[in-house]
Design goal:
By secondary structure, the protein is of the alpha+beta class. It is 38% helix and 24% strand. It contains 3 helices and 4 strands; from the N terminus they run E-H-E-E-H-E-H. The chain has helices spanning 13-25, 51-63, 73-76; strands at residues 5-9, 31-34, 45-50, 69-72. A 4-stranded antiparallel sheet has the order 2-3-1-4. The radius of gyration is 11 Å and the shape is globular.
C-alpha cells in the first residue's frame, strides 16, 4: 500500500455510504474497507483513499455535519 494513502473513519455506516457516494459523484477514487483492528469502531467500515482526496473528503464530511478521523495507512496496522 502506498504511504500516500489514508483511512477515513466515520461514526456509522450511513455516513460511510453517503461519503462513498459523494466520492463517486466527484470522481474521487475511494475504497470501502473494514476498519483495521487497532482502530475498531462500532461502524466497522471505513474509506481508504489518497491523502489529497482525504482532504477533500474531510471538507465534505465537515460541511455535512459528520465527524471523521483520519489515519495514514502506515499507522493503521501498528
Amino acid at each position: 500500500m502506498s504511504e500516500n494513502r489514508e483511512i477515513v473513519l466515520f461514526q456509522n455506516i450511513r455516513q460511510v455510504i453517503k461519503a462513498e457516494q459523494w466520492c463517486v459523484e466527484n470522481s474521487l477514487p475511494v475504497k470501502v474497507i473494514p476498519v483495521p483492528k487497532p482502530w475498531s469502531t462500532e461502524c466497522g467500515m471505513c474509506l481508504e483513499t489518497t491523502k489529497d482526496n482525504a482532504d477533500k473528503l474531510e471538507e465534505f464530511a465537515m460541511g455535512s455535519g459528520m465527524i471523521t478521523q483520519r489515519i495514514p495507512t502506515t499507522n493503521a496496522t501498528n
